[in-house]
Amino acid sequence: MNGKLKIAGIATGVVLLISATTYVYTAPYAGNEGLQRTPGVRIGGTDTLAPNDFGTVNDVGVNLLMKLGGFPPFVIYLSYVGAPEGVITATRPDGGYWAQRVRDGDTDGWLRTGDATYAMRATKI
Q1: Per-residue pLDDT reduced to its tens digit, 54-113
Q2: Residue 44 CB burial class (10 angstroms; 0-12, 13-18, ≥19)
Q3: Whole-angstrom distance between the N-terminal and C-terminal Cα of the chain?
Q4: What's the pLDDT score for residue 34?
Q5: What's the CA gap between 26 and 40, in Å, rounded?
Q6: What is the pLDDT of residues 27-48, one digit of tens each?
């Protein structure tokens, strides 16, 4: 009987591990309201060359997703406005985690708006 319980426990653990991994890798989901999931670790989209004027991203009308290189590899939602020279985002003034990573030099990453994903380098202004 103990052998069957052990096998059932291992099987349950494997199913939970696969479920959690699938949950993380199927994100991001659009939307930043209510009880929707956090974006996850995959930014998705199509690699796209940066436009000459990022003011065009204001017309997309969806959330901006950002993923910094390094660890942890999480995708986050950002409030933003496109400007000719890049994208301006807002963060907490009290040294929030993502802003602190940029100040510490972890500046390379990706931005996604709509289906377009751009390589980026963050700069504190």
Answers
A1: 888 787 767 788 888 887 778 887 778 888 888 888 776 666 777 788 888 888 989 888
A2: middle
A3: 65
A4: 47
A5: 8
A6: 555 544 544 455 667 788 889 9
> In this structure, are residues 107 and 121 in contact, taking their beta carbons and an 8 Å threshold?
yes
Contacts 24+ apart (CB under 8 A), 46-49: 46/115, 46/116, 46/117, 47/117, 47/119, 48/116, 48/117, 48/118, 49/118
Measuring CA to CA, how many Å separate 89 from each of 1, 4, 51, 82? 59, 54, 17, 9
What are the domain boundaries of the chain? Answer: 1-125
Which sign, positive or negative, has the C-alpha torsion 32, 93, 56, 54? Answer: negative
* Cis-peptide, bond into residue 84, ω within 30° of zero: no
Structure token pair of residue 8: 């059932």
Residue positions counted in the chain: 125
